[in-house]
Design goal:
By secondary structure, the chain is mainly beta. It has three domains: 24-103, Immunoglobulin-like, CATH 2.60.40.1080; 107-115 and 216-415, Thrombin, subunit H; 130-208, Pdz3 Domain (Roll), CATH 2.30.42.10. 11% of the residues lie in helices and 47% in strands. It has helices at residues 6-22, 25-32, 140-143, 167-171, 365-371, 409-415; strands at 36-40, 44-48, 54-57, 64-68, 72-77, 81-89, 92-102, 106-109, 113-128, 131-133, 136-138, 151-155, 158-159, 180-186, 189-195, 198-200, 205-207, 210-225, 231-234, 250-264, 273-278, 284-287, 290-292, 295-299, 313-314, 324-331, 337-347, 358-362, 382-385, 388-397, 400-408. Strands 8, 9, 12, 13, 14, 15, 18, 19, 20, 21, 22, 23, 24 and 25 form a 14-stranded antiparallel sheet that branches. A six-stranded antiparallel beta barrel has the order 26-27-28-31-30-29. A four-stranded mixed sheet has the order 1-7-6-3, with no helix packed on it. A hairpin with a 3-residue loop joins β4 and β5 (72-77). The longest helix is centred in the N-terminal third of the chain and has 17 residues, at 6-22. The protein is elongated and about 95 Å long. The termini are far apart.
Length: 429
């Protein structure tokens, strides 16, 4: 019989022992204990631990207190500040937990259908058109190197804020005149182009050969409202121009109440849509100061109620969101906000802002029957889990309208200029 060398045998035993230790339950519990924990005042966090691990608060801010059991550790956030909890085995420190306690923070969830009116910064170029001239069909704007998506900011040094501002320069142009000096904004860069309007031989007028736009409108869903600052967030994604597909650079804008009139049900390969109209009185209920990848933001001028939950709810940070059941608030008929069941299929704890932090699936049979799942216009519908606002619906999967993406509320608050961390980095924006 072949004998196994003693050294090899010892190595195998050592390897098996190490693997056993690594996969042991106490060690797995040790690695599962986070190094950094963020809580809000009054919040508790329970952690499972081995009875070998002992815990104690070592810093003196008194921000947290701990309740110790043989197999569990409960951290209670008493007041805002920083503390450290040290875990030790037989008096030897083996792990340190940094605990940050934030001031209590709550928002009022939305769900209301809103109409959105945006005014662009300058005048947006959305296309070229050919002018019938003596030399053939030409577009002066295209010849001058002005591209779709460019924003016209000034002509001959005069500021352009709306389409009507362009007409006097074109109407006053004569063939012998100097080219128009056009300042444009392109990809976060200011550039200058010279354009010579051409005469349309059929209409006997000079034209630029450009399609332009200075505003946009649509509908979406309110996500949250912060009662202390009156700041709000909605939609959960950027508003892009329908022709250029580029994000609209906003000068200003307004939101108004809207009424859902019907639903185009979604199906595989064909995302559905809420059809809605602005309220008859078109009363402005808030302004728009920011259009970002995380939605639109501004301040409300009128109080809004959803009829479900009009008292503030706490929020969940991205690392607190769990896979499992949740609810969304949204409107599918008229002005009535209703809650519907969904499942959070996956969630990613994010250290930095990102637009797609959750994958969602609609489970509510009534919503599936009515809409087919997630439809356009539902973007911004707040997601509620275990009594906390955790995020908003943002996108639908084209090939599966029952599912879509969500954004964590943490990043929408950040974009709204609400500083839950008390850093004052964006406060007052």
């Amino acid at each position: 019989m072949k004998r196994i060398p003693l050294r090899k045998t010892a190595g195998i035993i050592l390897l098996v022992s190490l693997l056993a230790i690594f996969f042991s339950h106490p060690l797995q519990q040790y690695f599962a204990i986070p190094t950094n924990v963020t809580l809000f005042e009054g919040q508790e966090k329970a952690l499972t631990k081995s009875d070998l691990l002992k815990a104690e608060v070592v810093s003196a801010s008194n921000s947290v207190s701990i309740a110790k059991e043989s197999d569990a550790l409960s951290i209670h956030a008493a007041k805002s500040g920083y503390d450290q909890v040290v875990l030790n085995i037989a008096g030897i420190p083996v792990k340190k937990m940094n605990i940050e306690v934030l001031k209590d923070f709550k928002v009022i969830p939305g769900g209301q259908s809103i109409g959105v009116k945006l005014n662009t910064l300058g005048v947006l170029v959305v296309g070229h058109h050919q002018i019938t001239t003596e030399k053939g069909a030409l577009s002066p704007g295209e010849i001058a190197g002005i591209k779709v998506g460019d924003i016209i900011m000034a002509i001959n040094g005069q500021k352009i804020t709306k389409m009507q501002d362009v007409a006097p320069f074109v109407n006053g142009y004569r063939g012998s005149a100097e080219p128009l000096v056009v300042d444009i904004f392109r990809d976060n860069e200011k550039i200058t182009r010279k354009i010579e309007p051409l005469k349309d031989k059929n209409e006997e007028v000079y034209k630029l050969g450009l399609y332009i736009r200075d505003s946009a409108a649509g509908i979406g869903t309110m996500t949250f409202y912060h009662p202390e600052t009156r700041k709000y967030g909605a939609l959960g994604h950027v508003i892009s121009d329908m022709d250029t597909k580029k994000p609209i650079v906003v000068k200003d804008g307004q939101i108004v109440k809207s009424t859902v009139t019907s639903i185009e049900k979604g199906s595989n390969g064909n995302p559905g849509e809420k059809l809605a109209r602005f309220a008859a009185d078109r009363e402005v209920i808030g302004n728009i100061t920011r259009n970002s990848p995380f939605g639109i933001f501004g301040r409300l001028t009128k109080q809004m109620e959803n009829g479900i939950k009009n008292t503030p709810l706490p929020i969940a940070l991205s690392n607190e969101v769990e896979e499992g059941p949740a609810e969304i608030y949204t409107v599918v008929e008229g002005n009535k906000v209703e809650k519907f069941g969904i499942e959070i299929i996956s969630t990613i704890p994010q250290k930095f802002p990102a637009t797609k932090g959750m994958v969602l699936k609609v489970t509510d049979k009534r919503l599936l029957s009515k809409t087919g799942g997630i439809v356009q216009g539902m973007s911004g519908s707040p997601i509620i889990q275990k009594g906390k606002v955790v995020g908003a619906v943002t996108h639908v999967f084209v090939n599966d309208p029952t599912s879509g993406y969500g954004v964590h509320i943490e990043w929408m608050l950040n974009e709204a200029g609400i500083d839950i961390y008390q850093n004052d980095s964006k406060a007052g924006r």
